[in-house]
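We give the chain.
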Amino acid sequence: MNYDLALLHERLDRMPMLKLLVPLAAGIVAAEYSTLPLWFLAGAFSVCGIIALLLRSPAALFTLLFVAGFGAGELHTPRRSVPQQVECLWEIDIDGIPSSREHYTTANAIVTAWRNPADGSWHPADDRIIVRSDSRTPLSGGERLCCTATLHPLRGPESYRRLMIRRGYAGVLYLSQRRILERREARHIGLHRSAAERLRKAGFKNDAGAVVRAMTVADRSGIAPELRTAYAHSGTSHLLAVSGLHTGIVFLVVNLALHLLTLLHRGHLLRNLLAVVVVWLYVAATGFTPSAVRAAVMCTLLQGALASGSEYVGMNALAAAAFGMLLWHPAWIGDIGFQLSFVAVAAILAWGVPLCRQLRTGYKLPDAAIGALCIGLCASAATAPLVSHTFGIVPVAGVLLNPIVIPLAGVVVTGGIMVLLLPVSAFALRPIAEGAAEALNTLARLTASTPCSTVEYTLSDRATAAIYLLFILLTATAWCRKPKKSVHLPS
């Protein structure tokens, strides 16, 4: 086999955002382990910027981006402003959709103010917390509570606590009915809660309805713990979290539905604009999860490439999405949802797509099955170390289910979106979406109950880093490989 570093440089030149992302991400990671004065960072940023402009120095640009990432990480580091282990009077807003369990309800909340018990003074706040209430104390999204309670530190494994701190959570508040002094109803429902409420009223039932709501609008409040465990152990838990798969399905459905607009004068421009608007509205309806935002950015860049007729490089678009998201919210770099989403898509672009091309048969059905298997294999293999490191399990059987679950997921998401947009279609589409969701539930339960479908193993930090370094080296080696020359003899 012949290898040439020039091929690697040529490929990387088509991905400028990938080269810009690396120093920015390195700076954000470095900010988690050290602190520098802001005046020093501002000075270093200015000096590196001047050198990069005057001398066009790649090293200065690299340092500039590293400093920018370090500064963004420092400025956005969550800082707790509320006391722990002290009983106070709190004013909190319930955020998102509360999730009910058998014996308790859990919800995310934002502390807007707290009263110091020592002197009775009120202090404004903007800290995120987790609220847990007993089964006799229901919680509603958007409502404001005035209550007396004690904020406790986050509990659980170290990886979980680090993750929640990166997301800005300051602790856990335990509530009962007697501790709530006042309730105020939500003034603004919000697009996310409004979409979830509309699907609830559409008549979806039992576990199948809960899965439809989870896959369509990221409302996982109705999913039973047993079903969550089944999806996790079957390797299909990614279906319950709105991600690139769900956003991609909406992107394809919208483009197909608006195809007739291309027959009009400049109709293709209107089609591209409407498709982008619909995709972002869908992401807003799901609560702007990191993986959905990443997918929406990539879909927007792809739609722009289709409108302008320019070349679309998937890995460059992925890096551009990561660059923008990390500048906006640097803490996402430590979010497991963000990490899994980008690692899975990077593996699909670097290995899954080329593998599908190599194994193409020319027949639609076999190619679709082979493509789903290859993409599922690459995504599962790439995310397995992260899943093992974070959750302590390796779902083995999930790879084989992808050719089946991806089409079923498409039916669930498409049916849920159509019912959401056109409630009058619920009578016809609800049984179809429910049937597909029930089939997914059955597959998840059967696979989870099969011996050896999941291996319990936890990778260490060093082992996880070593595996991903090996993945990067293998990818770089593959990109250096020269394609075989084919000589066609005259007939």
In short: The first helix runs from residue 5 to 13. Strands lie at 87-100, 104-115, 122-134, 144-152, 169-175, 180-184, 393-395, 454-456.
